[in-house]
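During data preparation, a discrete fold description was generated, as reproduced here:
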Amino acid sequence: MHPILLAARRCAAVASLTLAAWHAQADTLPDLRQSADPKLQQGLEKVVADLGLSAEVARGDLALSLVDITDGQHPRSAMLNGDEMLYAASLPKIAILLGAFVEAERGTLTLDAKRMETLNKMIRVSSNEAATEAFHWVGGARLIEILESPKYKLYDPRGGGGLWVGKAYGSEAAYRRDPLHNLSHGATAFQVARFYQMLDGNALVNPALSAQMKDVMSHPGIVHKFVKGLAGIPGLQIFRKSGSWQNAHADSALVEGNGHKYIMVGLAQNPQGGDWLVRLAPKLHQLVTGSAPATTVAQR
């Protein structure tokens, strides 16, 4: 056999084995439903109580999810109203991001430099125009098919719902509201946490595309909510998407640094919800890491 042809076949065999190993890793990602940690749960409840937000949780105006994935095979999770689906404004743009990368992996969408710039604008500065453009690359029906698919189950009616995009981020009407809550752009704290767990574990798309997704979600362009609350803590890298519309305030982040890695999600339905998330961020960081930040904008 010609040496060049033999080398090509060897490369293809290695690539096939690598892909098989990735699929095996993705299929064994721990189930967050089975990762509830009593100590972390108690700590989350205390943080909420200390910040005077217990009544807001009891009313359903605040939903939280906190997952320590420092050891990815043994996550520790805590939730408050984790399966309550709320209007999440721009946060569900992460579902459009997923849809674009799924289609890229299938070979039906080319993510060239111009399209990557559009995705960066959609996530980092939350451009509605960019989100609408990317939404139409995938198509509404196809996007919902991806979210509800057995592979992802990011919208699960049996679990209260989850991530949902039933409307582009423009003036056009909703084409399909979620069947449980009639929301156009909704989320549950639990399913958003799963999105980040799957992103970190290369379970959304293959490792190369996962790295590109994480890059899009890095370098947040809007300093508020969780990003503002964590601003006083050195050494952190934040992969993030937030959302705001009228009384709806949402944020979500995968936070890495100083030997720790964790996910936090907050959904609030209150004019003060953005401030709640600022105040919560350093407390949740401390709860996972055991270290208090030297300074924080949340102490006010």
